[in-house]
Amino acid sequence: xxxxxxxxxxxxxxxxxxxxxxxxxxxxxxxxxxxxxxxxxxxxxxxxxxxxxxxxxxxxxxxxxxxxxxxxxxxxxxxxxxxxxxxxxxxxxxxxxxxxxxxxxxxxxxxxxxxxxxxxxxxxxxxxxxxxxxxxxxxxxxxxxxxxxxxxxxxxxxxxxxxxxxxxxxxxxxxxxxxxxxxxxxxxxxxxxxxxxxxxxxxxxxxxxxxxxxxxxxxxxxxxxxxxxxxxxxxxxxxxxxxxxxxxxxxxxxxxxxxxxxxxxxxxxxxxxxxxxxxxxxxxxxxxxxxxxxxxx
Length: 297
Hints:
The chain is mostly beta strands. The protein is 5% helix and 46% strand. It is globular. It holds the Pfam family Aldose_epim. This is Aldose 1-epimerase.
């Protein structure tokens, strides 16, 4: 695998590493030798096969689509597995958009505690799967023990851009067994899914709660997440908070039994919204900015 250039942000107590030329993925959020991001199969598998790890962006849609096509304003867009960045899950559903490990991010500003990278979403390759020209900007800052990721979608034509993307921070508490972790979640609404991981249309309210992760698995979607909501992973004397600061009214929780990690995923729209609707849009006159943050205690 090529030796990808990294950007490492520093604060007095933490470091965070991102790789602009591999999809602007976050590969580390650490305190010395203590790593708080799930590494899973590592950067090489992400670059070669789109296998997620760390903090990847899922763009322009997060999670699955229920069919290999979608319609926006009467225009039908067909998706083909293996072409124009489209990857599929085991059931053939288009999965996690088309930007996995995309090499075209350009760093436009960099400091010890922050980096900004821009992707021009206007190439024929990208527009074949998502025909909405725009500029995608990601600004990452590390202040003390808080890592903040801000994303702006700015259309470059009069065509509005559907906002169905998300991020997938994989979190872990080093040195503490998964069975000793607990998860605190805010009040939100549970979106029930079928065996393929797609929403059934059934919904149920879910009050805020704290629960042990012992014997618990998650691959669940939620909406009605209020701005400023906090999800927290606790274990030993450690606590990791993920705050949905603004622009993320939906969430996905992913906690497989086979891995000592949990994904707490900020989403701009529910799974399959690009096909079903229920998303907001960015326009040339009104670009959209969303922000989430991760704090380690």
